[in-house]
TrEMBL record:
Residues 4-150 form the TIR domain. This is Toll/interleukin-1 receptor domain-containing protein. InterPro entries: TIR_dom (IPR000157), Toll_tir_struct_dom_sf (IPR035897). Coiled coil: none annotated. Keywords: Receptor. The keyword Ribosomal protein does not apply. Pfam families: TIR_2. Gene3D superfamilies: Toll/interleukin-1 receptor homology (TIR) domain (3.40.50.10140). The lineage of its organism: Bacteria, Bacillati, Actinomycetota, Actinomycetes, Pseudonocardiales. The keyword Repressor does not apply.
Amino acid sequence: MATQTVRIFLSWCHRDKASVDALLHDLRPTLRLFTDLKIEWWQDSHLMCGEDFEPAIRDRIDEADFGLLLVTPHYLASTFIREHELPRFSGSAADRPPLPVKLSQLPQFGPAYDFGGLEKLNMFSLDGKAFTEISRHRRTDFSNRLAEAVRLRALGQNGYTS
């Protein structure tokens, strides 16, 4: 069986670093277990010293098969994310497929809040709960199910099954 390489652009807000690190702690090993996929991802912490971040981020988004968006109120309030990352994955100008993940609790969708188009997308959660709302012993389950969602997205398997 041939292994398919999938490139993921990891989009997150640095104010959420502790939550992102906790999620990735369990997610990384599970992604390495796939026999049919080799998952590669890029995030802005991979920028080299002295590298111009706007063109580098734009280039990495262009190369990505999809974006893994780790959504929190800080994420949605980030000017840089709103101007340079989110429009590529959500809204009328989106040109890359998203996989939005509810990293922390969000306000209820409604006209009072601007979610940058994410309110129209199915956002990954576990039983409707964000990663940070899940008890520590269920976070591995969240990560394992997210890994499967990544796999299905990468393989384009979201159709009917028998």
